[in-house]
Design brief:
This protein has 170 residues and is mainly alpha-helical. It has helices spanning 10-15, 21-28, 32-41, 56-61, 67-74, 78-87, 100-105, 111-118, 122-131, 144-149, 155-162. It folds into 4 domains: 10-48; 52-87; 100-131; 138-170, no CATH class.
């Protein structure tokens, strides 16, 4: 059985290539494939809404987070993000492989710093830190009162009293 023909209002035809196919399909009450098929038949292979003006910050995120996460954050389509990542020769995002050595770094430096070192996303590092029940990295506050105490007690006691983990081993 053949699917019934779709009547294309001028307004919807004008939106092809300018508005996401999903939006047009929903407004017309037709299947997504019908909209794509019509767009292709009119020679509209690239959709204008997928064109993105890439900033350095956006490019820096590529490959460090999943494409769908980047697309949502950038207001771009997943296809546009994937295409740009591949165009730049960047690998797809992979979760870091947490070795005991890498796990030992969690909490000893900022999540962002460790993510940068691993070439991973900050969310991946934060997720692992929370999973391990470790608090976020905390830099010691070198106030005059704290500086006055330096050298008056063992470092281990000093770290326990100030809550700092910036020096020495835990």
């Amino acid at each position: 059985m053949k699917a019934p023909k779709v009547k294309w209002p001028r307004k919807c035809l004008a939106q092809l290539g300018k508005v996401p196919d999903k939006v047009i399909a929903k407004s017309m009450g037709v299947a997504l494939w019908r909209v794509r098929s019509k767009r292709y038949s009119l020679g509209m292979l690239l959709m204008e809404h997928n064109k993105v003006t890439w900033t350095r910050a956006m490019i820096a995120r590529l490959g460090r987070e999943p494409d769908h996460t980047n697309a949502d954050a950038m207001g771009a389509s997943r296809a546009a993000v994937r295409t740009k990542r591949l165009e730049l020769g960047l690998p797809n995002f992979k979760k870091p492989k947490w070795t005991p050595t890498l796990r030992a770094l969690i909490g000893r430096m900022s999540d962002a710093g460790l993510a940068n070192l691993l070439g991973a996303g900050v969310k991946a590092v934060r997720r692992e830190r929370v999973k391990l029940g470790l608090p976020a990295f905390k830099v010691a506050r070198w106030t005059p009162a704290v500086l006055a105490e330096v050298g008056r007690m063992p470092d281990r006691n000093w770290r326990e009293n100030t809550g700092s983990r910036s020096a020495g081993r835990r």
